[in-house]
Specification:
Helix content is 41%, strand content 25%. By secondary structure, the chain is of the alpha+beta class. The strands form six sheets. A six-stranded antiparallel β-sheet has the order 8-7-6-11-10-9. A hairpin with a 3-residue loop joins β25 and β26. The termini are far apart.
Amino acid sequence: MGFSAGAEAEIEKYAGFMLEHTPVGIALIEMPHFRLLQANAAYRQFLLRSQAPEARLPLGESFAEWCQRMDIPHIIDILKMVYQSSVPYRNDEFSVTTSARTSYWHLSVTPITHEDGSIPYLLVTAYDITPQIEAQRQTEPERISESHSLVAAELQRLGAIDQVARSVRQSLDVKQISQTTLDIIYGYIRPAHICLYTAAEAQRALRKVSSRSAPNCPATHPDLPFVPYESSPLPVSQPILQVREPVFVADLQATAMTKENPYMGAGVHGFIYIPLWYQGNLEGALVASFNHPIKENGWELQMLQGSSTHIASALVHARLHKALDNEHNRMRAVLDQLPEGILIAETTSGTISYANSAAAQMLGFSLEELTSKPLHLLRPPLAQEKLTVSGRTLLPWSMIVIRALCGETITSKETLVVRADDSQLITLASCAPLYNEDGIMTGAVIVFQDITTQKTVEQHKNEFFSIANHELRTPVTVIQGFAEILQLKAQQDHEHLEPVVEYALNSIAEQSEHLTHLIEEMLDISRLEQSQFFLRRSPCNILTLVHNVLRGQEVMARQHHFSLTLEGIDENEPLIANVDEERIVQSLNNLINNAVKYSSPGTHVEIGLRRGDPPSDELLFWVKDEGIGIPADEIPLIFKRFYRANNVDEGQSGFGIGLYLVKEVINRHGGHVWLESTPGKGSTFFFTLPMATPAT
């Protein structure tokens, strides 16, 4: 609603009075000539620096010239800036210096814009804030001092946490980590009692490592050696494994907890429990108690929380180190008790870093000598005759170590140990290189098995075989010769021998032949063991060889039916292979003899031959019978020396030599041998021969 003319005049009269006495200085300046149109008393106080006549404000005159005379040109600079930019000016702490003192004002300059965008006036306001500034500056030293105290305390806390972090990195011993940590923390927060626990998974409890108590700590204060996970005596509301965050109690005595709790009964006030979790695993806990109430934002909780991560990490590393150390000691204890000699050699130094007692005893050194001397001092040069045993030259044991350090893997290599007293040991050595996680070779492990006794027994056995074979061969040859003479004389004289005499002569001849065959097989075994088994290869027609073997078997084993199966091979096709004909005949006869021996009279024996599958250039042989068969679990053993299947009748003759010789002969020709068998239905023996085996 509007006012009457008289009322408006009254309002205008009082408006001028109000503006004159308001505490905010106000002035109106006409632009662009900087003519001061009006200023109230507060603004005059803002500008006038003295009561001299020339200091009176030039109302209606140039404000710029007056400011130059009063040596305050910076005010005109502010007015020009606002006028030219049209942006208001504001300064919350504008200082004005007089001869008496400096005052502070809240100053603002606002442009009054015309409709055409021009600025005809500037409205200047100033408000005296000197009392507030002076009061603020009076309290500033006190505030700065308090701030400095807070910063110093924070730096002290961070320094203590850093000291904890550095100290726990210097040890992998849990006891030492615990004691050092508690000493640092105790010196900073001064608890009545502080304890570090580690997680004992086997006991499902926290186990105390160490604790620290203040001199005034009550004797009744609990010092728990174990804190069960499920029924904890700590003033913690949840089971231990469910507590993930710190537990803080400002004043335990002010809670509703019963006096039966050991901490309540001991008069504990402040209480802090810090679980030490690391990557989802509980590693332990820090428990601190105080004889006085504590604040939740106090240094005690901050110190314990700040240190907890470093302590948990240190406990993890200590636990892993201890587990690794225990595993190392356990493995060392196992190696120390092994009857085989074990060496671990280092690539960088060429020295032996580990040797067990068995290795020291075998090699003729003390453990100290083995692990302290360089390898070249442990292997004096040996003459050739010292490395020769039973006509064979063996590698010295040190060469196995050298080859191992060169990255070579060796399995079951016979080596010779010549000790300082010239005593000799024959060992079976194996070695393999050792690599780190980056694939870099760091050393090698070497294993020695003393086979001296075994080799001595084998040598005596071979000597016995050799002597026995030679001693048996002569009388057997004489018996076989006289039997053949009697048979031949009877035929020449056309005498009809009595059936008993004829049967006796035939039996003598057959058994002599069988005994000669056994003697030859035993001699072959002796040759194999002494590395004196050699093949005499020459081009041979395989078809002719097979036919000759089959005809000989048909004469000897008339109670069985024999057949020859040729798959994809023409009867007249020349199949030439470079083989030891005598040994291949021996192998075929051994397989056929076994087929005859372990199958019933009247059954069928098949001998087969075909080319191997492309691209291999080899021949495949097989001998199939309808005999007793071989159990599946015995098939891997059937080609071993002196092995006989369990289902063989004890009345059947044989030493378990034939199949072993078959395997050796075929392998040395570059082929391989295997079998398929079903108990009660028969067996099929297969072997292959290369068509073009190089002569050796």
